Amino acid sequence: MLAWAMWQLRMEGCHNINLVGGEPTIHLHTIVEAINMLRFFKETYAEAVDAKADIYYPYSLDTRNAYYEGEFNTPILWNSNMYMSGETMKILHELVDIWLPDFKFGNNKCATWLSRTPWYFETVSQNHKQIYEWGEDIVIRHLVMPGHVECCTKPVLRWIAENMPDTPVNIMDQYHPDCYCNPSDPRFDKRYSDMARYPTEEEIMESYRYARSLGINFEEITFEKSLRFHPLFFR
Fold first, then answer.
1. CA dihedral defined by 142, 168, 124, 121, rounded to 10 degrees?
2. Which of 20, 25, 31, 223 is exposed most, by the fewest CB atoms within 10 A?
3. 20/24 Cα distance (integer angstroms)
């Protein structure tokens, strides 16, 4: 089913297949098998298929969207937290065209406390560096968290500036307290009370200022099409 959905989306004109989740790494065996199956899909299948990936909108299946010199061709986008082994990275290197990784924590203490991911920084930084050394297309995402600008945001941005210069970075301001961090949720855990708020404007602004001071390539990708009108950009 996954291979069929990927094929059909590409036939409908999708620019890439975004493998996300949750976290896609735990489904790697299924993803690898699905990508392998794509080579058996033929151009003539488009004439026999009338089901749609999106039932609400009519799309025509067009082989011009998906085939190049007779071979099925679809860019694979890996949308991940990058907390994975070197062996997994080697497998993905053969399959992935575009990388959209998260780099969230600037130290192992915060990572273990908030996400239960020991050895986070060395694992994730090594995987980011590997992508950079491969010369792959990559956009790094960093989520600014309340109370974590000094311990997480700045170390992450500093590492990127020193090890992956000119790499596009999306500095995201959309953190919101949820689940164990949300006082209105029955699952709320008082241990995470410090995370039970949105980042302040000053925290977001300080993140932007620090990124600029390091020469981080972030403005265009962070503010996207609304760059000219973003109220924080001019402060």
1. -60
2. 20
3. 5
Tell me whether strands 67-68 and 71-72 are parallel, antiparallel or unpaired. Answer: antiparallel
Of 32, 54, 74, the residue at which a domain comes to its end is 74
Distance of alpha carbon 123 from alpha carbon 13, whole angstroms = 36
Note the pTM of the prediction, 2 decimals. Answer: 0.84
- Conformational region of residue 216, where left means phi above 0, alpha means psi within -120 to 50, and beta covers everything else: beta
Q: pLDDT for 101-151, tens place per residue? A: 999 999 999 999 999 999 999 999 999 999 999 999 999 999 999 999 999
**Secondary structure, 3-state, 85-96:** CHHHHHHHHCCC
Nearest Cα residue to 208 out of 231, 178, 176, 226: 231
- Both tokens of residue 197? 């708020």
Q: Where does a domain end: 59, 74, 89?
A: 74
- Do 111 and 49 share a structural domain? no
Query: 214 and 116: one domain?
Result: yes
- Both tokens of 53, joined, read 């990936």
| Count: domains in the chain | 2
Quote the CA–CA distance of 148 and 114 in Å, as a whole number. 11
Q: Are 142 and 102 in contact (CB under 8 A)?
A: yes
CA atoms within 13 A on the CB side of 91: 16
